[in-house]
Predict the structure.
Amino acid sequence: MANHVSPRSSFMNNPVVKWIDHRLPVFTFMNHELNEYPTPKNLNYWWNFGSLSGVMLVIMIVSGIVLAMHYTPHVDHAFNSVERIMRDVNYGWLIRYIHANGASMFFIVVYIHIFRGLYYGSYKPPREVLWWLGVIILLLMMATAFMGYVLPWGQMSFWGATVITNLFSAIPLVGESIVTWLWGGFSVGNPTLNRFFALHYLLPFVIVGAVMLHLVALHRFGSNNPLGIDANGPQDKIPFHPYYTIKDMFGFAVFFIVYAIFVFYAPNYLGHPDNYIPADPLVTPPHIVPEWYFLPFYAILRAIPNKLLGVIAMFSSILILFVLPWLDTSRVRSGRFRPVFKWFFWIFVVVCLALGWAGSQPPEGLALIVSRVGTIWYFLHFLVILPLLGWFERPLPLPRSISEPVLGGGRVAAGTAAKSMEKA
Amino acid sequence: MATPIQSAPSDIAAHGEVKRRDFLYLAAGAFSAVGAAAALWPFIHSLNPSADVLALASIEVDLSPIQPGQRITVSWRGKPVFIDHRTPEAIEAARNVNLADLPDPQPDQARVKKPEWLVLIGVCTHLGCVPLGQGATDNRGDFGGWFCPCHGSHYDTSGRIRKGPAPLNLAVPEYTFLNDTTIRIG
Protein backbone atom coordinates (compact mmCIF):
# COMPACT_ATOMS: atom_id res chain seq x y z
CA MET A 1 0.00 0.00 0.00
CA ALA A 2 3.06 2.19 -0.14
CA ASN A 3 1.72 4.27 -2.97
CA HIS A 4 -1.37 5.02 -0.98
CA VAL A 5 0.27 6.76 1.89
CA SER A 6 -0.83 10.24 1.03
CA PRO A 7 1.95 12.82 1.15
CA ARG A 8 2.88 13.21 4.79
CA SER A 9 1.59 16.58 5.73
CA SER A 10 3.88 19.28 7.02
CA PHE A 11 1.94 18.90 10.27
CA MET A 12 3.42 15.46 10.84
CA ASN A 13 6.91 16.86 10.23
CA ASN A 14 6.54 19.61 12.79
CA PRO A 15 9.26 19.04 15.44
CA VAL A 16 6.87 19.47 18.39
CA VAL A 17 4.40 17.02 16.84
CA LYS A 18 7.23 14.58 16.18
CA TRP A 19 8.52 14.89 19.77
CA ILE A 20 5.11 14.12 21.26
CA ASP A 21 4.30 11.50 18.67
CA HIS A 22 7.49 9.59 19.42
CA ARG A 23 6.34 9.27 23.04
CA LEU A 24 2.58 9.09 22.52
CA PRO A 25 1.73 8.15 18.94
CA VAL A 26 -1.65 9.89 18.85
CA PHE A 27 -0.78 11.84 15.73
CA THR A 28 0.39 8.75 13.90
CA PHE A 29 -2.82 7.07 14.96
CA MET A 30 -5.00 9.94 13.80
CA ASN A 31 -3.04 10.34 10.59
CA HIS A 32 -3.37 6.65 9.93
CA GLU A 33 -7.08 6.36 10.70
CA LEU A 34 -8.44 9.68 9.44
CA ASN A 35 -5.97 10.79 6.78
CA GLU A 36 -4.25 7.86 5.11
CA TYR A 37 -6.98 5.30 5.88
CA PRO A 38 -7.33 3.45 2.56
CA THR A 39 -10.97 3.56 1.50
CA PRO A 40 -12.66 1.85 -1.44
CA LYS A 41 -12.84 4.37 -4.21
CA ASN A 42 -16.42 3.59 -5.18
CA LEU A 43 -18.30 4.63 -2.02
CA ASN A 44 -21.57 6.38 -2.77
CA TYR A 45 -23.45 8.92 -0.69
CA TRP A 46 -25.08 6.23 1.45
CA TRP A 47 -21.66 5.90 3.07
CA ASN A 48 -21.92 9.46 4.43
CA PHE A 49 -24.29 8.44 7.18
CA GLY A 50 -21.71 6.84 9.42
CA SER A 51 -19.70 10.02 9.82
CA LEU A 52 -22.96 11.98 9.99
CA SER A 53 -23.92 9.83 13.00
CA GLY A 54 -20.60 10.71 14.60
CA VAL A 55 -21.28 14.40 14.02
CA MET A 56 -24.73 14.06 15.58
CA LEU A 57 -23.25 12.32 18.62
CA VAL A 58 -20.89 15.26 19.14
CA ILE A 59 -23.68 17.82 18.68
CA MET A 60 -25.89 15.94 21.16
CA ILE A 61 -23.14 15.77 23.77
CA VAL A 62 -22.17 19.43 23.43
CA SER A 63 -25.75 20.76 23.48
CA GLY A 64 -26.68 18.29 26.23
CA ILE A 65 -23.87 19.35 28.54
CA VAL A 66 -24.89 23.00 28.16
CA LEU A 67 -28.54 22.13 28.83
CA ALA A 68 -27.54 20.15 31.93
CA MET A 69 -25.98 23.35 33.28
CA HIS A 70 -29.45 24.93 33.33
CA TYR A 71 -31.64 21.95 34.13
CA THR A 72 -32.87 20.86 37.59
CA PRO A 73 -33.58 17.12 37.98
CA HIS A 74 -36.34 17.36 40.57
CA VAL A 75 -40.04 16.65 40.10
CA ASP A 76 -40.94 20.09 41.48
CA HIS A 77 -38.50 22.02 39.32
CA ALA A 78 -37.76 20.00 36.18
CA PHE A 79 -40.66 21.29 34.05
CA ASN A 80 -40.12 24.89 35.13
CA SER A 81 -36.39 24.71 34.63
CA VAL A 82 -36.99 23.60 31.04
CA GLU A 83 -39.41 26.51 30.55
CA ARG A 84 -36.77 28.80 32.03
CA ILE A 85 -34.29 27.45 29.46
CA MET A 86 -36.84 28.31 26.75
CA ARG A 87 -37.62 31.82 28.00
CA ASP A 88 -34.80 33.22 30.13
CA VAL A 89 -31.52 31.51 29.28
CA ASN A 90 -29.65 33.26 26.48
CA TYR A 91 -30.25 31.20 23.32
CA GLY A 92 -31.70 28.48 25.56
CA TRP A 93 -34.54 27.93 23.08
CA LEU A 94 -32.00 27.31 20.33
CA ILE A 95 -29.88 24.91 22.34
CA ARG A 96 -32.91 22.96 23.51
CA TYR A 97 -34.35 22.73 20.00
CA ILE A 98 -30.95 21.66 18.69
CA HIS A 99 -30.92 18.89 21.30
CA ALA A 100 -34.55 17.78 20.97
CA ASN A 101 -34.54 17.76 17.17
CA GLY A 102 -31.00 16.44 17.25
CA ALA A 103 -32.31 13.23 18.78
CA SER A 104 -34.61 12.77 15.79
CA MET A 105 -31.86 13.66 13.33
CA PHE A 106 -29.50 11.23 15.07
CA PHE A 107 -32.03 8.41 14.66
CA ILE A 108 -32.81 9.28 11.02
CA VAL A 109 -29.14 9.22 10.18
CA VAL A 110 -28.49 6.02 12.12
CA TYR A 111 -31.51 4.25 10.61
CA ILE A 112 -30.32 5.15 7.11
CA HIS A 113 -26.87 3.93 8.12
CA ILE A 114 -28.39 0.62 9.27
CA PHE A 115 -30.47 0.15 6.13
CA ARG A 116 -27.38 0.94 4.08
CA GLY A 117 -25.69 -1.94 5.90
CA LEU A 118 -28.69 -4.19 5.32
CA TYR A 119 -28.79 -3.50 1.57
CA TYR A 120 -25.07 -3.79 0.89
CA GLY A 121 -24.53 -6.74 3.24
CA SER A 122 -22.14 -4.86 5.50
CA TYR A 123 -22.87 -7.33 8.31
CA LYS A 124 -21.38 -10.29 6.44
CA PRO A 125 -17.99 -11.84 7.19
CA PRO A 126 -15.57 -10.55 8.22
CA ARG A 127 -17.57 -7.61 9.65
CA GLU A 128 -19.90 -9.44 12.08
CA VAL A 129 -18.40 -7.87 15.21
CA LEU A 130 -18.51 -4.46 13.58
CA TRP A 131 -22.23 -5.09 13.03
CA TRP A 132 -22.73 -6.26 16.63
CA LEU A 133 -21.13 -3.10 17.93
CA GLY A 134 -23.52 -1.13 15.75
CA VAL A 135 -26.51 -2.94 17.25
CA ILE A 136 -25.14 -2.26 20.74
CA ILE A 137 -24.84 1.43 19.85
CA LEU A 138 -28.45 1.40 18.65
CA LEU A 139 -29.63 -0.13 21.94
CA LEU A 140 -27.63 2.42 23.94
CA MET A 141 -29.07 5.23 21.83
CA MET A 142 -32.59 4.00 22.47
CA ALA A 143 -32.03 3.87 26.23
CA THR A 144 -30.45 7.32 26.19
CA ALA A 145 -33.20 8.85 24.05
CA PHE A 146 -35.94 7.35 26.22
CA MET A 147 -34.43 8.66 29.45
CA GLY A 148 -33.76 12.05 27.90
CA TYR A 149 -37.40 12.35 26.90
CA VAL A 150 -38.41 11.83 30.55
CA LEU A 151 -36.35 14.77 31.81
CA PRO A 152 -38.68 17.69 30.83
CA TRP A 153 -41.26 16.05 33.11
CA GLY A 154 -44.25 16.74 30.92
CA GLN A 155 -47.23 14.43 30.56
CA MET A 156 -45.60 12.37 27.78
CA SER A 157 -42.38 12.18 29.78
CA PHE A 158 -44.17 10.82 32.80
CA TRP A 159 -46.46 8.38 31.04
CA GLY A 160 -43.76 7.28 28.63
CA ALA A 161 -41.58 6.48 31.62
CA THR A 162 -44.45 4.65 33.28
CA VAL A 163 -45.29 2.54 30.24
CA ILE A 164 -41.72 1.68 29.26
CA THR A 165 -40.63 0.76 32.79
CA ASN A 166 -43.78 -1.33 33.12
CA LEU A 167 -42.56 -3.44 30.20
CA PHE A 168 -40.33 -5.16 32.72
CA SER A 169 -43.33 -6.13 34.83
CA ALA A 170 -44.06 -8.70 32.12
CA ILE A 171 -41.15 -10.79 33.38
CA PRO A 172 -42.67 -13.71 35.31
CA LEU A 173 -42.25 -13.84 39.12
CA VAL A 174 -39.70 -11.03 39.56
CA GLY A 175 -41.21 -8.48 37.17
CA GLU A 176 -42.98 -6.35 39.77
CA SER A 177 -39.91 -6.23 42.01
CA ILE A 178 -37.73 -5.17 39.08
CA VAL A 179 -40.10 -2.33 38.23
CA THR A 180 -40.13 -1.11 41.84
CA TRP A 181 -36.34 -1.25 41.76
CA LEU A 182 -36.22 0.75 38.50
CA TRP A 183 -38.53 3.38 39.99
CA GLY A 184 -36.94 3.61 43.40
CA GLY A 185 -40.50 3.76 44.73
CA PHE A 186 -44.02 2.59 44.00
CA SER A 187 -44.50 4.78 40.96
CA VAL A 188 -42.41 6.92 38.63
CA GLY A 189 -41.26 9.73 40.91
CA ASN A 190 -38.37 11.87 42.03
CA PRO A 191 -35.91 8.98 42.51
CA THR A 192 -36.76 7.80 38.99
CA LEU A 193 -36.15 11.25 37.54
CA ASN A 194 -32.83 11.59 39.36
CA ARG A 195 -31.46 8.26 38.18
CA PHE A 196 -32.68 8.83 34.63
CA PHE A 197 -30.84 12.14 34.58
CA ALA A 198 -27.64 10.53 35.87
CA LEU A 199 -27.86 7.75 33.27
CA HIS A 200 -28.86 10.12 30.48
CA TYR A 201 -25.64 11.99 31.17
CA LEU A 202 -23.56 8.81 31.42
CA LEU A 203 -24.75 6.74 28.45
CA PRO A 204 -23.63 9.10 25.67
CA PHE A 205 -20.07 8.62 26.84
CA VAL A 206 -20.59 4.86 26.82
CA ILE A 207 -21.78 5.35 23.24
CA VAL A 208 -18.57 7.23 22.47
CA GLY A 209 -16.63 4.21 23.72
CA ALA A 210 -18.74 1.83 21.64
CA VAL A 211 -18.29 4.06 18.59
CA MET A 212 -14.53 3.89 19.02
CA LEU A 213 -14.67 0.10 19.09
CA HIS A 214 -16.97 0.28 16.06
CA LEU A 215 -14.26 2.25 14.25
CA VAL A 216 -11.51 -0.11 15.35
CA ALA A 217 -13.52 -3.01 13.98
CA LEU A 218 -14.29 -1.04 10.80
CA HIS A 219 -10.67 -0.22 10.13
CA ARG A 220 -9.63 -3.82 10.66
CA PHE A 221 -10.92 -4.82 7.22
CA GLY A 222 -11.85 -1.41 5.87
CA SER A 223 -15.19 -0.14 4.65
CA ASN A 224 -17.52 -2.31 2.65
CA ASN A 225 -18.50 -0.77 -0.70
CA PRO A 226 -21.49 -0.71 -3.04
CA LEU A 227 -20.17 -3.69 -5.02
CA GLY A 228 -19.68 -5.71 -1.86
CA ILE A 229 -16.45 -7.23 -3.16
CA ASP A 230 -13.08 -6.97 -1.51
CA ALA A 231 -10.43 -4.68 -2.90
CA ASN A 232 -7.90 -6.55 -5.01
CA GLY A 233 -5.14 -4.21 -4.01
CA PRO A 234 -4.17 -0.60 -3.48
CA GLN A 235 -5.40 0.37 -6.93
CA ASP A 236 -8.96 -0.09 -5.62
CA LYS A 237 -8.52 2.30 -2.71
CA ILE A 238 -7.92 5.99 -2.12
CA PRO A 239 -6.84 7.79 1.03
CA PHE A 240 -9.67 8.97 3.27
CA HIS A 241 -8.36 12.51 3.15
CA PRO A 242 -9.04 14.56 1.09
CA TYR A 243 -11.36 12.36 -0.99
CA TYR A 244 -13.89 11.28 1.62
CA THR A 245 -13.40 14.14 4.06
CA ILE A 246 -14.57 16.51 1.35
CA LYS A 247 -17.38 14.21 0.28
CA ASP A 248 -18.51 13.83 3.90
CA MET A 249 -18.37 17.57 4.44
CA PHE A 250 -20.60 18.17 1.45
CA GLY A 251 -23.02 15.69 3.01
CA PHE A 252 -22.81 17.51 6.34
CA ALA A 253 -23.73 20.78 4.65
CA VAL A 254 -26.81 19.26 3.00
CA PHE A 255 -27.78 17.52 6.22
CA PHE A 256 -27.39 20.68 8.30
CA ILE A 257 -29.86 22.45 5.99
CA VAL A 258 -32.49 19.80 6.76
CA TYR A 259 -31.63 19.89 10.46
CA ALA A 260 -31.85 23.70 10.53
CA ILE A 261 -35.25 23.65 8.82
CA PHE A 262 -36.58 21.61 11.73
CA VAL A 263 -34.78 23.62 14.42
CA PHE A 264 -35.81 27.02 13.10
CA TYR A 265 -39.10 26.44 11.28
CA ALA A 266 -40.70 23.34 12.78
CA PRO A 267 -39.04 22.77 16.15
CA ASN A 268 -42.02 20.97 17.64
CA TYR A 269 -43.14 19.11 14.54
CA LEU A 270 -41.54 15.86 15.70
CA GLY A 271 -42.55 16.35 19.31
CA HIS A 272 -45.88 16.00 21.01
CA PRO A 273 -47.88 18.94 22.43
CA ASP A 274 -48.90 16.95 25.52
CA ASN A 275 -45.34 17.19 26.75
CA TYR A 276 -45.87 20.91 27.33
CA ILE A 277 -48.35 19.96 30.06
CA PRO A 278 -46.62 19.36 33.40
CA ALA A 279 -46.56 15.72 34.51
CA ASP A 280 -49.70 14.68 36.38
CA PRO A 281 -49.47 11.25 38.04
CA LEU A 282 -53.26 11.15 38.39
CA VAL A 283 -54.30 11.61 34.75
CA THR A 284 -53.06 9.71 31.70
CA PRO A 285 -53.41 11.53 28.35
CA PRO A 286 -56.06 9.78 26.18
CA HIS A 287 -53.62 8.80 23.41
CA ILE A 288 -50.00 8.31 24.33
CA VAL A 289 -47.36 7.59 21.72
CA PRO A 290 -43.60 7.38 21.90
CA GLU A 291 -41.29 9.52 19.80
CA TRP A 292 -41.41 8.61 16.09
CA TYR A 293 -38.18 6.62 16.17
CA PHE A 294 -39.73 4.08 18.54
CA LEU A 295 -43.02 3.71 16.68
CA PRO A 296 -42.24 0.52 14.69
CA PHE A 297 -41.20 -1.26 17.86
CA TYR A 298 -44.21 0.12 19.70
CA ALA A 299 -46.42 -1.29 16.93
CA ILE A 300 -44.83 -4.73 17.37
CA LEU A 301 -45.44 -4.52 21.12
CA ARG A 302 -49.11 -3.75 20.63
CA ALA A 303 -49.62 -6.21 17.79
CA ILE A 304 -49.54 -9.15 20.15
CA PRO A 305 -52.48 -9.55 22.52
CA ASN A 306 -50.38 -11.02 25.30
CA LYS A 307 -48.30 -8.91 27.68
CA LEU A 308 -45.24 -11.13 27.97
CA LEU A 309 -45.17 -12.18 24.32
CA GLY A 310 -45.59 -8.59 23.16
CA VAL A 311 -42.59 -7.49 25.21
CA ILE A 312 -40.55 -10.45 23.98
CA ALA A 313 -41.45 -9.70 20.37
CA MET A 314 -40.49 -6.07 20.76
CA PHE A 315 -37.07 -6.80 22.21
CA SER A 316 -36.52 -9.66 19.75
CA SER A 317 -37.11 -7.32 16.83
CA ILE A 318 -33.83 -5.61 17.68
CA LEU A 319 -31.94 -8.52 19.18
CA ILE A 320 -32.54 -10.55 15.99
CA LEU A 321 -30.08 -8.19 14.31
CA PHE A 322 -27.30 -9.81 16.33
CA VAL A 323 -27.74 -13.11 14.49
CA LEU A 324 -28.43 -11.55 11.10
CA PRO A 325 -24.92 -12.39 9.79
CA TRP A 326 -25.87 -16.09 10.10
CA LEU A 327 -29.50 -15.79 9.03
CA ASP A 328 -28.50 -14.35 5.67
CA THR A 329 -27.02 -17.37 3.95
CA SER A 330 -26.11 -15.67 0.68
CA ARG A 331 -22.39 -15.29 0.07
CA VAL A 332 -22.93 -12.25 -2.12
CA ARG A 333 -22.74 -9.12 -0.01
CA SER A 334 -24.21 -6.33 -2.09
CA GLY A 335 -27.93 -6.26 -2.84
CA ARG A 336 -26.96 -4.85 -6.23
CA PHE A 337 -26.18 -8.39 -7.44
CA ARG A 338 -29.11 -10.07 -5.72
CA PRO A 339 -32.16 -9.58 -7.94
CA VAL A 340 -34.64 -11.25 -5.59
CA PHE A 341 -33.19 -9.95 -2.33
CA LYS A 342 -33.49 -6.46 -3.74
CA TRP A 343 -37.27 -6.81 -3.88
CA PHE A 344 -37.52 -8.25 -0.42
CA PHE A 345 -35.26 -5.49 0.91
CA TRP A 346 -37.60 -2.78 -0.32
CA ILE A 347 -40.65 -4.67 0.92
CA PHE A 348 -38.92 -4.81 4.30
CA VAL A 349 -38.36 -1.04 4.21
CA VAL A 350 -42.03 -0.49 3.45
CA VAL A 351 -43.01 -2.87 6.25
CA CYS A 352 -40.88 -0.92 8.73
CA LEU A 353 -42.48 2.36 7.61
CA ALA A 354 -45.94 0.80 7.82
CA LEU A 355 -45.19 -0.43 11.33
CA GLY A 356 -44.12 3.10 12.19
CA TRP A 357 -47.45 4.44 10.95
CA ALA A 358 -49.38 1.75 12.80
CA GLY A 359 -47.49 2.58 15.99
CA SER A 360 -48.64 6.18 15.78
CA GLN A 361 -52.34 5.22 15.58
CA PRO A 362 -54.66 3.95 18.31
CA PRO A 363 -54.41 0.14 18.38
CA GLU A 364 -57.66 -0.66 16.59
CA GLY A 365 -59.10 -1.26 13.13
CA LEU A 366 -56.73 -0.95 10.17
CA ALA A 367 -53.76 0.09 12.32
CA LEU A 368 -54.01 -3.08 14.35
CA ILE A 369 -54.21 -5.22 11.20
CA VAL A 370 -51.20 -3.43 9.69
CA SER A 371 -49.18 -3.86 12.86
CA ARG A 372 -50.01 -7.58 13.00
CA VAL A 373 -49.23 -8.26 9.33
CA GLY A 374 -46.14 -6.05 9.62
CA THR A 375 -44.89 -7.86 12.72
CA ILE A 376 -45.28 -11.24 11.06
CA TRP A 377 -43.51 -10.05 7.93
CA TYR A 378 -40.73 -8.42 9.98
CA PHE A 379 -39.80 -11.72 11.57
CA LEU A 380 -40.54 -13.69 8.41
CA HIS A 381 -37.98 -11.55 6.59
CA PHE A 382 -35.20 -12.43 9.00
CA LEU A 383 -36.15 -15.98 9.95
CA VAL A 384 -37.42 -17.41 6.66
CA ILE A 385 -36.80 -15.19 3.66
CA LEU A 386 -33.14 -14.36 4.21
CA PRO A 387 -32.07 -17.95 5.02
CA LEU A 388 -33.95 -19.35 2.02
CA LEU A 389 -32.88 -16.65 -0.45
CA GLY A 390 -29.27 -17.67 -0.03
CA TRP A 391 -30.20 -21.08 -1.38
CA PHE A 392 -32.72 -20.25 -4.06
CA GLU A 393 -31.57 -16.94 -5.42
CA ARG A 394 -29.23 -16.88 -8.42
CA PRO A 395 -27.03 -13.80 -7.99
CA LEU A 396 -25.76 -11.74 -10.92
CA PRO A 397 -22.10 -12.17 -11.85
CA LEU A 398 -19.83 -10.12 -9.67
CA PRO A 399 -17.31 -7.74 -11.21
CA ARG A 400 -13.72 -8.87 -10.85
CA SER A 401 -12.58 -5.69 -9.20
CA ILE A 402 -13.84 -2.40 -7.83
CA SER A 403 -12.25 -0.63 -10.79
CA GLU A 404 -13.75 -2.83 -13.48
CA PRO A 405 -17.34 -1.49 -13.64
CA VAL A 406 -15.98 2.05 -13.94
CA LEU A 407 -13.23 1.41 -16.43
CA GLY A 408 -15.04 -1.25 -18.42
CA GLY A 409 -12.64 -3.00 -20.73
CA GLY A 410 -13.91 -6.53 -20.17
CA ARG A 411 -12.49 -9.13 -17.90
CA VAL A 412 -8.92 -8.25 -17.23
CA ALA A 413 -6.61 -9.19 -14.42
CA ALA A 414 -6.35 -6.78 -11.57
CA GLY A 415 -2.78 -5.83 -12.42
CA THR A 416 -3.69 -5.01 -15.99
CA ALA A 417 -6.64 -2.96 -14.80
CA ALA A 418 -4.29 -0.96 -12.67
CA LYS A 419 -1.99 -0.30 -15.61
CA SER A 420 -4.85 0.90 -17.75
CA MET A 421 -5.78 3.28 -14.98
CA GLU A 422 -2.37 4.78 -15.09
CA LYS A 423 -3.01 5.85 -18.64
CA ALA A 424 -6.42 7.21 -17.73
CA MET B 1 3.08 0.44 -8.79
CA ALA B 2 -0.04 2.06 -10.02
CA THR B 3 -2.27 5.05 -9.52
CA PRO B 4 -0.36 8.20 -8.78
CA ILE B 5 -2.04 10.04 -5.97
CA GLN B 6 -2.59 13.70 -6.61
CA SER B 7 -1.25 15.88 -3.88
CA ALA B 8 -3.75 17.50 -1.57
CA PRO B 9 -5.05 20.76 -2.97
CA SER B 10 -3.68 22.69 -0.04
CA ASP B 11 -0.05 23.28 -0.94
CA ILE B 12 -0.25 26.95 -1.71
CA ALA B 13 3.37 27.72 -2.23
CA ALA B 14 4.25 24.44 -3.90
CA HIS B 15 5.22 26.17 -7.11
CA GLY B 16 5.29 29.70 -5.83
CA GLU B 17 2.15 30.74 -7.64
CA VAL B 18 -1.38 31.29 -6.38
CA LYS B 19 -3.95 29.27 -8.22
CA ARG B 20 -7.70 29.44 -8.44
CA ARG B 21 -7.82 26.32 -6.28
CA ASP B 22 -5.89 28.10 -3.52
CA PHE B 23 -8.45 30.87 -3.55
CA LEU B 24 -11.30 28.37 -3.32
CA TYR B 25 -9.54 26.55 -0.53
CA LEU B 26 -8.99 29.68 1.54
CA ALA B 27 -12.46 31.07 0.87
CA ALA B 28 -14.11 27.80 1.90
CA GLY B 29 -11.90 27.59 5.00
CA ALA B 30 -12.68 31.17 6.02
CA PHE B 31 -16.38 30.64 5.43
CA SER B 32 -16.48 27.56 7.65
CA ALA B 33 -14.40 29.29 10.33
CA VAL B 34 -16.94 32.13 10.47
CA GLY B 35 -19.78 29.62 10.47
CA ALA B 36 -18.22 27.64 13.31
CA ALA B 37 -17.71 30.80 15.37
CA ALA B 38 -21.32 31.84 14.75
CA ALA B 39 -22.52 28.39 15.81
CA LEU B 40 -20.38 28.51 18.94
CA TRP B 41 -21.61 31.90 20.13
CA PRO B 42 -25.09 30.81 21.38
CA PHE B 43 -23.45 28.14 23.52
CA ILE B 44 -21.03 30.63 25.08
CA HIS B 45 -23.66 33.31 25.54
CA SER B 46 -26.00 30.81 27.23
CA LEU B 47 -23.58 30.77 30.15
CA ASN B 48 -24.00 34.54 30.71
CA PRO B 49 -26.60 35.73 33.25
CA SER B 50 -30.07 34.82 31.99
CA ALA B 51 -33.08 37.12 31.80
CA ASP B 52 -34.45 36.03 35.18
CA VAL B 53 -31.10 36.68 36.84
CA LEU B 54 -30.82 40.12 35.24
CA ALA B 55 -34.37 40.93 36.35
CA LEU B 56 -33.24 40.67 39.98
CA ALA B 57 -30.27 42.95 39.45
CA SER B 58 -31.61 45.99 41.36
CA ILE B 59 -33.23 46.32 44.80
CA GLU B 60 -34.77 49.11 46.88
CA VAL B 61 -33.90 49.57 50.55
CA ASP B 62 -35.87 51.54 53.15
CA LEU B 63 -33.38 53.37 55.37
CA SER B 64 -35.83 54.87 57.86
CA PRO B 65 -35.59 52.17 60.57
CA ILE B 66 -31.78 52.28 60.70
CA GLN B 67 -30.56 54.17 63.78
CA PRO B 68 -27.36 56.25 63.80
CA GLY B 69 -24.44 53.94 64.50
CA GLN B 70 -26.37 50.93 63.23
CA ARG B 71 -25.23 48.81 60.30
CA ILE B 72 -27.43 46.51 58.22
CA THR B 73 -26.66 43.98 55.51
CA VAL B 74 -28.84 43.46 52.43
CA SER B 75 -28.37 40.94 49.65
CA TRP B 76 -27.83 42.29 46.14
CA ARG B 77 -26.85 40.12 43.15
CA GLY B 78 -26.04 37.36 45.60
CA LYS B 79 -23.56 39.51 47.48
CA PRO B 80 -23.85 41.33 50.84
CA VAL B 81 -24.24 45.10 50.72
CA PHE B 82 -23.29 46.92 53.91
CA ILE B 83 -25.35 50.01 54.79
CA ASP B 84 -23.84 52.04 57.64
CA HIS B 85 -25.77 54.91 59.27
CA ARG B 86 -22.63 56.71 60.37
CA THR B 87 -22.34 58.76 63.54
CA PRO B 88 -20.71 62.23 63.33
CA GLU B 89 -17.63 60.76 65.02
CA ALA B 90 -17.29 58.06 62.37
CA ILE B 91 -17.61 60.66 59.61
CA GLU B 92 -15.06 62.82 61.33
CA ALA B 93 -12.65 59.89 61.62
CA ALA B 94 -13.11 59.05 57.93
CA ARG B 95 -12.42 62.62 56.80
CA ASN B 96 -9.55 63.32 59.17
CA VAL B 97 -7.05 61.20 57.28
CA ASN B 98 -3.94 62.04 55.30
CA LEU B 99 -4.83 60.64 51.87
CA ALA B 100 -1.18 60.11 51.04
CA ASP B 101 -1.02 57.44 53.75
CA LEU B 102 -3.71 55.30 52.14
CA PRO B 103 -2.95 52.29 49.92
CA ASP B 104 -5.88 53.25 47.71
CA PRO B 105 -6.23 57.03 48.18
CA GLN B 106 -9.82 58.23 47.93
CA PRO B 107 -11.48 61.05 49.91
CA ASP B 108 -14.50 60.03 51.99
CA GLN B 109 -16.61 62.60 50.12
CA ALA B 110 -16.12 60.62 46.90
CA ARG B 111 -17.43 57.45 48.53
CA VAL B 112 -20.81 58.66 49.81
CA LYS B 113 -23.81 60.55 48.46
CA LYS B 114 -24.92 61.74 51.90
CA PRO B 115 -22.24 61.78 54.64
CA GLU B 116 -24.31 59.80 57.17
CA TRP B 117 -25.06 56.96 54.75
CA LEU B 118 -22.20 54.71 53.70
CA VAL B 119 -23.14 51.98 51.20
CA LEU B 120 -20.54 49.31 50.41
CA ILE B 121 -20.28 45.95 48.73
CA GLY B 122 -19.29 43.77 51.67
CA VAL B 123 -16.74 41.69 49.82
CA CYS B 124 -13.08 41.94 50.75
CA THR B 125 -11.05 43.07 47.73
CA HIS B 126 -8.35 40.56 48.60
CA LEU B 127 -9.96 37.20 47.86
CA GLY B 128 -13.66 37.70 48.32
CA CYS B 129 -14.49 36.91 51.97
CA VAL B 130 -17.15 38.91 53.83
CA PRO B 131 -15.43 41.18 56.41
CA LEU B 132 -16.60 41.36 60.06
CA GLY B 133 -17.97 44.58 61.51
CA GLN B 134 -21.71 44.49 60.81
CA GLY B 135 -22.58 43.04 64.21
CA ALA B 136 -22.32 45.29 67.24
CA THR B 137 -19.85 42.94 68.94
CA ASP B 138 -17.77 42.12 65.85
CA ASN B 139 -14.09 42.85 65.59
CA ARG B 140 -14.02 46.05 63.55
CA GLY B 141 -10.25 46.09 63.10
CA ASP B 142 -7.75 48.78 64.01
CA PHE B 143 -9.63 51.60 62.25
CA GLY B 144 -13.19 51.13 63.51
CA GLY B 145 -14.55 50.02 60.13
CA TRP B 146 -14.41 46.40 59.05
CA PHE B 147 -11.97 43.58 59.54
CA CYS B 148 -11.61 40.63 57.23
CA PRO B 149 -10.71 37.53 59.26
CA CYS B 150 -9.57 35.47 56.29
CA HIS B 151 -6.24 37.22 55.72
CA GLY B 152 -6.32 40.20 58.10
CA SER B 153 -7.37 43.25 56.09
CA HIS B 154 -8.44 46.33 58.10
CA TYR B 155 -10.91 48.82 56.64
CA ASP B 156 -11.77 52.24 58.12
CA THR B 157 -15.10 53.97 58.67
CA SER B 158 -15.19 54.88 54.99
CA GLY B 159 -14.60 51.26 53.97
CA ARG B 160 -11.07 52.08 52.76
CA ILE B 161 -8.26 49.59 53.07
CA ARG B 162 -5.76 50.70 55.72
CA LYS B 163 -3.76 47.63 56.63
CA GLY B 164 -3.42 44.09 55.32
CA PRO B 165 -3.18 42.35 51.93
CA ALA B 166 -6.30 43.74 50.21
CA PRO B 167 -5.29 46.07 47.35
CA LEU B 168 -8.41 48.23 47.06
CA ASN B 169 -11.09 49.91 49.14
CA LEU B 170 -14.42 48.15 49.60
CA ALA B 171 -16.38 48.89 46.42
CA VAL B 172 -19.28 51.32 46.42
CA PRO B 173 -22.19 49.93 44.36
CA GLU B 174 -24.15 52.07 41.97
CA TYR B 175 -27.12 53.47 43.92
CA THR B 176 -29.47 56.46 43.97
CA PHE B 177 -31.64 58.11 46.62
CA LEU B 178 -35.25 57.80 45.49
CA ASN B 179 -36.22 60.02 48.43
CA ASP B 180 -34.65 60.91 51.78
CA THR B 181 -35.08 57.47 53.26
CA THR B 182 -35.09 55.09 50.28
CA ILE B 183 -32.27 54.01 48.03
CA ARG B 184 -32.22 51.83 44.95
CA ILE B 185 -29.11 49.74 44.53
CA GLY B 186 -28.17 48.73 40.97
In short: Residues 190-221 of chain A form the longest helix (32 residues). The first strand of chain A starts at residue 38 and ends at 40. Chain A touches chain B through 30 residues (CB under 8 Å).
